[in-house]
Sequence to fold (288 residues):
Amino acid sequence: MPHSIFRFSGLFLGLALLFSCSSGPQPSTLQKIQKTKKIRLGYANEAPYAFLDPETGEITGEAPTLAREVFGQWGDYEVEGVLTEFGSLIPGLKAGRFDIIAAGMYITPARCKEILFSDPTYAIGDQLLVPAGNPNNLHALADFVDQDLKLGVVTGAMERQHAELAGVAAEQLVLLPDTPSGLEALIAGRIDAFAVTALTAQQLVTRAGSDQVQTVEPFHDLEQNGVLLKGYGAFGFRKSDSELRNAFNTTLSGLIGTSRHLELVEPFGFGPNQMPGSVRMETLCSMP
Fold:
């Protein structure tokens, strides 16, 4: 009996080794996408960057539209959206819940340590969404300093860092999972202003109505070392997916700044003033 057990154990071990050897190296994400013709995009439901179209039930916005254009040049690809809170996009990407972050995420040195980025697809500044009439006379993030006011920011978004750079105290910040939650909190009076990108602010005014909320004019962008801080949005990839990032970026780079690019993003409020110019992800990743 003991000899039989050993024989069976050896047989199973041999089969396991045979299977592992025959399986060979695992296909890369790029190879899987090319075979299945399916791509999963992680997004955070923030107009105009990436959001769910209630009429079609599909994700739309600046980032998904550009992604479809890129993959359309590769062939007939099916694009699936995976809704994720903004602060969970990078963990979700790393965990394999989706293949690419398509949420207009800003390129920052800290994020570059976590994931790979494409070249930027737009450049834009901040804005404040406030109750109609701007009752607290807010025109900059610095206006919150030493005041008993609450500022809403989306968890993981750059507006939080900009607020901290402007001197806004941690106890004044209200972290929110997404922009719809921020709009709701503002209308309900739980926050005094909501810090978002300029285009997002415009979208939220349209959604809620100018009788409830407004942007502030003028808004004074934060400066650092004499330079206005702007956000450069891009697509995100896993560190192990440089092959996919490089292939995607090659196609994307031929599109950025062209008339076709402007035609695709104009419906979402983007124009020539939001183009990234010659700025590349290497420069943004290496900034102090």
